[in-house]
Amino acid sequence: MKNRYSLPAVRLAALPLGIAAALVPFASLAQSQSPSDVHSLDRIEVTGSRIKRADVEGAVPVTVIDRAAIDASGHVSVADVLRDTTFASFGNFSPRSGSSAQAVSDVDLRGIGSDRTLVLIDGRRAPYAPSLGTNADLNTIPLAAVERIEILSDGASALYGSDAIGGVVNVILRKDFDGAEVRIGKGTPSVTGGDTDEASVLFGISGERGNLMFGASYNSRGIVFARDQLGGDIRGGSPYGNNFYFESATEPGEEGEAGGALPGYACNDPNFWMNEKNCVYDYNAEAANEASIKNKSLFARGTLQLNDAVSLYSAASYSHASSFGRYAPTPGVLYVPENSPNDPVPGDGRGAFVYHRYAAAGNRDTFVDNTVLDINLGMNWQVSDRLSIDAGLRRSDARLGELGRGYIVTPLAEAAAADGRYNLRDPFGNAEDVIKGFTTTTSRDGKFVIEEAYANASLDLFDMAGGRSAVAFGVESRSEDYADIYDSLSEAGVVAGSAGNSAAGSRRVHAAYAEWLLPVMDRFDFTLAARYDRYSDYGGDLSPKASLRWQPLANLTLRGSAGKGFRAPNLN
């Protein structure tokens, strides 16, 4: 069962005087329109095409999730909305407890990797998450600010670049919003865990000279433990409990035959149990399937019409996501030499390999903090009835901080077991300072900074039998600065139950593209597009594409496309 409560939108006039007074400088934006104003059908840019047109039906399939559908879904995040669509049949990454990208969510439209699905915000590339490499983190997009989500399930490298080879998700933010809106929601699943909370406040004012919108949002989802889910009452049986293998008699230093449960250990500590001759561990009792996550966002967006031809626009957002995940205590393999106090079979002339669960050291808990600052400034210039230009600058700065507690330094634990300081037969009876002597806190720090400049133009050419032929063309230039740094012990590979390879790099990317629409006859369009991307670390490649749309009947549209794309290597 899921309950959701929301407060309806109220007009600005009903706001407290202090808030209303704060908006006075923007009052000129909200000049009323004359009833005699004549409105023509707006020409807009639809995901999958850079050409502005009144007909939203293009040659590529675009599915739109509007605001009404978002509200009706009861979801609290963009990731959850997308996860419920048929386009997510190949799976989206959700905040998995203890994983390398615990606090993030991404989307994979065609099953070829989420780094091949491009996420846009108002047509511009969304900030990348340091823990993912070149994937956008959907958790950093505040759902309260979203007007609609457009999903292009076709490859679009010819327009958007190499990371759009698997499709595009374009998140369109609210613009012409008037009034104030407050939302409060709570969700309670039918099983324990995963409770959701949300709250948002949104203010907006719009008029002939432009619009302004700003707000704040919060959403959270509780941790989901394996023991509380369907099948969670079935005991896990990990062999990393307290079992041993003899050292090979013919190949010293290698595992030989299985020996079963470690002699002298009763296997009755919490979550340990005997499965035939082996002492196994019930990891379901402690581990979480999904991490808890809390998202906080501040956002603002505005446009200002300077004259009939030129308008300025700006957008800024700050997001902070924090997460807590839990794994069961660290499993590991210890080599115990012959004549050690922990030798399972003293006097046999061989050492042993013990599959051990460091339950006395506690669970592995992971704390993650992600922050994203995204700023975009731009200009629209309607040069003539046929030509429009869009140009701007953008900077996004994503940061990652991660701490992991309860992890084991294998060489130190192995030395303590070898000389008997750590008693494998009575793990919970060991002195606290002995256990602390081989436990560690892992860390990870990352960043992904993108600085971008862009210019796009849309030009009507000539009339054809099916309508007006048009072209769009543009250039982009961006720099990418990436780092993902693990602590020295994880980097050295000596931490059991964890791993990490640090990576860092930077590069510049320059691109140019063109698109040509040819409406050869009524209800039959043909589109050609091509884009050239050049990476400073990889080189350059061309991505061409041809697509067509034929609508023989009012309720039947046939589409087809053929293209070629590439995927530049990730910085990680």
UniProtKB/TrEMBL annotation:
Keyword Plastid: no
Gene3D superfamilies according to UniProt: TonB-dependent receptor, beta-barrel domain, TonB-dependent receptor, plug domain
Residue span, TonB-dependent receptor plug domain: 59-168
Keyword terms: Cell outer membrane, Membrane, Receptor, Signal, TonB box, Transmembrane, Transmembrane beta strand, Transport
Main location: membrane
Signal peptide: 1-30
Subcellular location: Cell outer membrane
Membrane topology: Multi-pass membrane protein
Pfam families xref list: Plug, TonB_dep_Rec_b-barrel
TonB-dependent receptor-like beta-barrel domain: residues covered: 357-572
GO CC term (a single one): cell outer membrane
Family, as annotated: Belongs to the TonB-dependent receptor family.
Name assigned to this protein: TonB-dependent receptor
Species, as recorded: Stenotrophomonas nitritireducens
